[in-house]
Structure formats: C-alpha cells, structure tokens
Amino acid sequence: MEFTSLLLVAFLFGGMLLFSLGFGTLAFKFLEVPTARRFIRNTFPFFYLYVFSVALIASSILVFHNFDAFLLIFLIAITTIPNGLILMPAINLASDNKLKRKFVVLHSVSVFITFSHILLAGFALYLLK
User: Distance between CA atoms of 80 and 83, rounded to whole angstroms?
Assistant: First the structure.
C-alpha cells in the first residue's frame, strides 16, 4: 500500500503540473483565443474532479502509513472543493461580465492555490521517498 500511495501522489503531482503549466499554455498556443478559452473553461471541472479524487484516495491510504504526507494531500483534497464550486464559477462570471480587474484578482488566487497544491504534493513526495 505504501507503493500505491507513492504512485498516487506522483500521479497527482504530475497531473497538476502538466495541466497547469502545459495544457493551458498549449491550448492558447495552438487554438484561437475564443476556442482556447472555451476549451479551458470546459476542462477545468474535470481538472478539479481529478485533483479531488486522486488526493482523496491517496490520503485515505496515507493516513495509515505517513501522517505528515496524509495531512498535506488531504489539505489539497479539501481546498479543491471551494476552488471548483466557488472560485471557478466566480472567475467565469467575472470573465463573462468583462470585469477584468475582478477576473485578474480571482484568477491570480486560483493560480496561487494551484501552485500551492503542486508544492504540497511535491513535498509529500519528498516525505514518501
């Protein structure tokens, strides 16, 4: 089970890193801006579901093997809920209503939280080495 939790945390870390840094960047590089925006908007619910699900499964295993790593990954799972249910819709609403300043602030908060999640997952990987 320890190896399974290590794989799940690595899967979480890699998935968040790839989606955040690679996927969004490539969407805007290869698609027209309106299409890229629509595409990103439609994929973010799946991203949050992925992060929540993998973090919840990993933390349920980690609780028995590495409590410090459990706390980090469980924190990711719990804080993903308001990201997906509150912050993401607020960002979309600000964008739809052309509230640029509000969009930038909310999007910056979202980026900060996601970056924090990546760092937490990376530290959890370090703890599991």
Answer: 5
Domain ranges of the chain: 2-128
Distance linking the first and last C-alpha atoms of the chain: 14
Q: Where are the alpha helices (DSSP H) in 1-129?
A: 2-17, 24-30, 33-62, 67-82, 88-96, 100-128
Can you tell me the distance from the alpha carbon of 110 to that of 88, in angstroms, rounded to the nearest whole number? 8
Q: Are 13 and 114 in contact (CB under 8 A)?
A: no
Task: Indicate the burial class of 29 (C-beta count within 10 angstroms; 0-12, 13-18, 19 or more).
Answer: exposed
Pull the structure tokens for residue 126: 């370090």
Residue 12 DSSP SS3: helix
Instruction: Judge contact between 13 and 121, C-beta under 8 A.
Output: yes
Q: Check: CB of residue 4 under 8 Å from CB of residue 53.
A: no
> 86-129, pLDDT tens digit by residue?
999 999 999 999 999 999 999 999 999 999 999 999 999 999 98
Q: How far is CA 15 from CA 23, 33, 86, 92, 106, in A?
A: 10, 24, 22, 23, 22
Provide the 10 A C-beta neighbour count for residue 6.
20
